[in-house]
Amino acid sequence: MNDLLIQPFQLAWATGALSHGPLIRKTTLLGDLSAIFTDGDATQLFPDRPAYAVDMFDTPGGEGELYVGVTHLYPGKVGDEYFMTRGHFHQRREQGEVYFGLQGEGLLLMQNQQGQAWTEPVFAGSVHIIPGYTAHRLINTGSQTLSALAVWPSTAGHDYTSLPHGFALRVIEKAGKVRIMAVKHG
Ligand code: PA5
Ligand code: NI
User: Fold this and answer.
1) 22-36 pLDDT, tens per residue?
2) Which residues surround ligand 2, an ion (CB under 5 A)?
3) CATH 1.10.10.10 describes domain 11-182
4) How far out from the chain centre does Cα 165 lie?
């Protein structure tokens, strides 16, 4: 055994499958997401259906350390709204993140603390630099699984509660087309 040569963890770029390292998987079910969809009640028709799974290498956290994970967001809609992740700011607001599109088609929705929101298309090979102070959510607008690799500071944390009105944009299918709509509040 030569401990000068350590075998690396591995990622299958085409599918997002992680291997050769200790893994944690967290699956989020449609039934957990009723609060984020316009027609939230419709999530209760299939509450046990997985909406997305996040695989990450189980590595030590701490100041300066990075986590690496892959989100697999399944295709589907709740009413006319495409499946999406819950979305979050980081608890450590100043900390950013990088997403890399691996497979499928979708959008990365970002929103700053002033409430300005925008999207970037996600596809195999896309690179997304999420600045600090910016909430982020993946949306699957395609018919295949959307998979994206993420690298983020282990100290970032997730804050799911600081978007009291949700994101300012919604992504729906209308007449067979992807439409990005501004949300009207009040
Ligand atoms: O670190 C990230 O931003 C991702 O790994 C997300 O946590 C993942 O996509 C799941 O989204 P959420 O945490 O909003 O449920
Ligand atoms: Ni994040």
Assistant:
1) 999 999 999 999 999
2) 97
3) no
4) 19
